[in-house]
Amino acid sequence: MTSPLEISYPGGPLTGHLRLTGSKSIANRALLIRALTPDGFTIHGLAAADDTVRMQQLLESDDEVLDCGPAGTTYRFLTGYLCRRQGTQLLTGSARMKERPIGILVDALRSLGADITYAENEGYPPLHIGYSALDKSDRVSIAADTSSQYISSLLMLAPTLPNGLKLTLEGEIVSMPYIKMTLSLMGYFGIKHHWEGQTVIVAPQYYQARDFTVEADWSAASYYYSLAALSESAELHIDGLFQDSLQGDAVVKELYEEFGVTTTFTDTGVQLIKPAGTVAPVLFEHNFVDCPDIAQTLMVTCAGLGVQGLYSGLQTLFIKETDRVKAMKAELGKVGVSLYKIPQRMAGKTGILYFAQEGRADYAAGTPTFATYHDHRMAMALAPLAVQHAVRLEDPEVVKKSYPDFYRDLQQLGIGPKTV
Ligand SMILES: O=C(O)C1=C[C@@H](OP(=O)(O)O)[C@@H](O)[C@H](O)C1
Ligand SMILES: C=C(OP(=O)(O)O)C(=O)O
Known about the structure:
The chain is an alpha/beta fold. The protein has helices spanning about 25-35, 50-60, 70-80, 105-110, 150-155, 175-190, 220-230, 250-255, 295-305, 325-335, 345, 375-380, 405-410; strands at about 5-10, 15-20, 45, 65, 90, 115-120, 125-130, 140-145, 165-170, 195, 200, 210-215, 235-240, 260-265, 270-275, 285, 310, 340, 355-360, 370, 390-395, 415-420. It folds into 2 domains: about 5-20 and about 215-420, UDP-n-acetylglucosamine1-carboxyvinyl-transferase, Chain (Alpha-beta prism), CATH 3.65.10.10; about 25-215, UDP-n-acetylglucosamine1-carboxyvinyl-transferase, Chain. Helix 5 (about 150-155) links the parallel strand 8 (about 140-145) and strand 9. Helix 3 (about 70-80) runs parallel beside helix 5 (about 150-155). It starts with a strand and ends with a strand. The relative contact order is 0.15. The mean pLDDT is about 95. Bound molecules: shikimate-3-phosphate and phosphoenolpyruvate (PEP). Phosphoenolpyruvate binds near residues 72, 73, 320, 321 and 402.
């Protein structure tokens, strides 16, 4: 744990220009695909994010123990990849990773012939993974309601399998834009696929080497949208983001229109404007099933502005870096904002889980100290409140997972961090 950091803003319009970090989701796919491509290729714009660095290191390592730390994509993508690599390796991770389920992916890989055994608890990391031809079958069904990363892991491997793969997605599909991102990137490297209903069909094919540039990270951009929304007025220029994005989290540009933040694409990225005098909405309602990583950002924006929140599609937040709903409930509670599950009888009989949020962040008790729960997004989502009142973040270095320069970039906007 690193010492707490206090961040504050002197006030006035928020202005500035920065170049945003690369997307770890895109980077980790490009790295995995490169490992499956005989000729290799150059990847530009790889971020120094821990999850990306780990992916690079582990793909190159022939150590017997591979430690993914808290990196979900790294763990799930390597689970598939290692099945085709010679030798046996122990794939492990942080204490939290050992609580994040992997059984759905292991069962799917085993049905193709994988040699995987649980080293500790059934259904959870760590895993012993041995080599297998994965030629027992050319089709598999997988529950799509828990994590899309299992599906992306299988899809990236699919063209390299002796018989290709027909992958049927069962139940509600969560994080669908990430599956589309995987298929688009595979397409960039020459892999064709087609859908038959809920089944993705990928024939045996070779990845084609092509140089590649990683887009800036729209999930990281969400924190600047929140900063703009929470400021009295703002004009921010963020380089590296483009209109035609592979990332589902690019939806932030539409979501923040409700808070008066407009986006204009420029030659180098985006310009965000929030005019003075913008009136916040009374209610913000959204289903986050396609964009779970920006849920915390929107919760904090609503808390800062006193906007009532009505959220659904949060079911995957319980198994991320922390139980994010529980963590947000505790931290927003520190500034008097409540987040609670709506009883089923009030939400209707749809089976959809709804959460409601009420209250406006209140700093009467002084500078709040927010815990970050080993979750980069807790720190980054709560930080924008600093434009309203100084806030303290515990274990601030947690942001390194996806955005190591987060505080440096805030400083460029005049939002000053100091260690306390
Ligand atoms: O494939 C990816 O790059 C990701 C998929 C999502 O996870 P789930 O599919 O588990 O929701 C997302 O939350 C994660 O940050 C990155
Ligand atoms: C959920 C996340 O990451 P991962 O699942 O890759 O650990 C995230 O970055 O918000």
